[in-house]
Amino acid sequence: MESEQLFHRGHYRNSYNSITSASSDEELLDGAGVIMDFQTSEDDNLLDGDTAVGTHYTMTNGGSINSSTHLLDLLDEPIPGVGTYDDFHTIDWVREKCKDRERHRRINSKKKESAWEMTKSLYDAWSGWLVVTLTGLASGALAGLIDIAADWMTDLKEGICLSALWYNHEQCCWGSNETTFEERDKCPQWKTWAELIIGQAEGPGSYIMNYIMYIFWALSFAFLAVSLVKVFAPYACGSGIPEIKTILSGFIIRGYLGKWTLMIKTITLVLAVASGLSLGKEGPLVHVACCCGNIFSYLFPKYSTNEAKKREVLSAASAAGVSVAFGAPIGGVLFSLEEVSYYFPLKTLWRSFFAALVAAFVLRSINPFGNSRLVLFYVEYHTPWYLFELFPFILLGVFGGLWGAFFIRANIAWCRRRKSTKFGKYPVLEVIVVAAITAVIAFPNPYTRLNTSELIKELFTDCGPLESSSLCDYRNDMNASKIVDDIPDRPAGLGVYSAIWQLCLALIFKIIMTVFTFGIKVPSGLFIPSMAIGAIAGRIVGIAVEQLAYFHHDWFIFKEWCEVGADCITPGLYAMVGAAACLGGVTRMTVSLVVIVFELTGGLEYIVPLMAAVMTSKWVGDAFGREGIYEAHIRLNGYPFLDAKEEFTHTTLAADVMRPRRNDPPLAVLTQDNMTVDDIENMINETSYNGFPVIMSKESQRLVGFALRRDLTIAIESARKKQEGIVGSSRVCFAQHTPSLPAESPRPLKLRSILDMSPFTVTDHTPMEIVVDIFRKLGLRQCLVTHNGIVLGIITKKNMLEHLEQLKQRVEPLAPPWHYNKKRYPPSYGPDGKPRPRFNNVQLNPIEEREETEEEVHLLNSTTL
Prior knowledge:
It is a multi-pass membrane protein. This is Chloride channel protein. The protein is mostly helical. Among the domains are: about 385-475 and about 485-625, Clc chloride channel, CATH 1.10.3080.10; about 655-740 and about 745-810, CBS-domain, CATH 3.10.580. Helices cover about 50% and strands about 5% of the residues. It has 29 helices and 14 strands. The strands form 5 sheets. Strands 1-9-8-5 form a 4-stranded mixed β-sheet. A hairpin with a 2-residue loop joins strand 13 (about 840) and strand 14 (about 840-845). Helix 2 (about 115-155) packs across helix 12, helix 6 (about 240-250) packs across helix 23 (about 630-635) and helix 13 packs parallel to helix 23 (about 630-635). The protein is elongated and about 105 Å long. It starts with about 70 loop residues before the first strand and ends in an 8-residue tail after the last helix.
């Protein structure tokens, strides 16, 4: 989901309009002709913020002038609003953890005072388990509702059950006594649209009418879905996993996990799946579960008032979402740990496991598929795999890696083009066009006309005596000398060859349409389409290996295992391995993906083939780029996300990244006891910084602490409303002891309580490799840069992301690619004739060296306070 293409700009409250309208120290990263737009309003842009023109914090004088020298000590009374965050801001993990520890100590100190305090202590201790229980219950119930509604609306495109309108096709024929085994999907109670409209069940007229009605319902569902998203909840579109990863890393997107988003995403997810678009519901179910977790967390003060604790609930909710999506509770926990969570302590692991358990139990109780399973395509294989099959399994892994690399590049290129052209301004038209093309091409092919989950089920299923699919149309060989299984390997019949041809066309169709479908303005998941592509390729490979083993069973690779009349090859197993390989190539998941697919099949026996295919797909995909599809979309949208998987191998220093730069205005700072309320208000109104270092004095320049812009604004407004005598000329004191003031001076304002007394600092010679690790592991918003205790500058999370992107654009390969002309390629020598510097076997454009100046030591000499 591209953030700047949301339908209502009202969702970007206080967001940055464009990096091109930012202050002078915000630079476009155009080192290699590519611009990265951090348009997502990186909140911790303490020195590089971009506040909309004309937006000021208005502070009114409240109360009369009073010459009393009593201080308003804000330590005695908490200020409402201090410590909270605005929209599109990053939380301070360290401060949130400190707040939680202080709350915990306060509760423990009071629990022995009375029975009521002990009850409150127990309630606080069990609130975590209560919120994940409610989240699991809601996630399972909503998943069951979505599954039932999607199945019914998917079958509605083909016909309707006259005996009970709320039955889908399968349920309609359950109670019929006129259904035959060969045509068990046909019964008098189920009527196609051609039978209802023109009264014909067969013939060209019936086919054309069913074709028209199929397209009509597909377009209707798609139009209704995109309209609901556009009008009521723009955040309900897309998969949601890139944004959830960003939110779990500490970023705040108000409304993304709200009630409206939950309701509209649930409804439109059903419509989008029923429309037949090449998408799935599994990814959006993670978003739905996280919405439930966010809503229930507001019922408990422990989580509603602490953003870091709330993200523990969201981690557990994402595990519950995958649990109900795939019927894989353990896989859901591992998915949350491996793929989406930024901070995952041990207690979150336990609660995630419990939430996944509750969600799976509720879904099993609802039994939406009528097969006593959690998913539609649950299968069991009874034939073991053999050693020689590792080679085709690895080939499927190579295909999955190549598919993942191709899809990521093609989809990102299309999404980038959508953002830069007029086509992106008409999301409803785009959805209608994609849905129309999908419906027109999908209907003639029975494998593309099927619901994607049903297609995967058919591809996974092994051929047994009760299967009537064309994939199981084998010729019975009566010359087999030895029968060791009920259904041995047999030569393929005409139905199998016809099915292979249709599957090849379906594979091409799915590959192309998935590229253009993922990212449109309806709920769209990627798990099921990727698994379908891999399952199609795997089934084709499985049938090919099966026929090869049958006709050449005397080859040395088959001779030991595949006797005549033996059932040694299972094509459905190849489909399962291919599905895992393609999904791994797109998402770059490993452990969690193997466990999810293992829980789908219910057999430990096939873990080794799955591991081989998934690791091969990851290695092949990483050869073309280490980013998965979700990381690529995070980077495309410019979300402030520091990926822990990336390695920082450059040799830059903190002084190369900090602000202000050499030609920038001096650093805006506060002094601890010689500034007035008017001075601070003027600095807030004249700058767009989100925080200010506090120093001892102009002469000392020693660091005292750090004050956030929002906290300063709220504290001053609260003091004027609640305390008499606070005026514009009142002295603001951040020190512990107030300096002596003349008797006629107005009442001073003490703001030490909002001051961060222990901000993280590094020296100007600290390697950026260490600074990046500090930001990743501690979740910092900003870090001050000092020299001998004197503040020189500041590094924010946005500065970090800009620097990393700048280094990526400046890195040039040592040798030009084969398709480049040498004259177009940058020379190995700089404009001064000297060789360009080389670090870690890559060639870098030299970063401008900085020299210490008096301006960095005496920062306030040229500043008017």
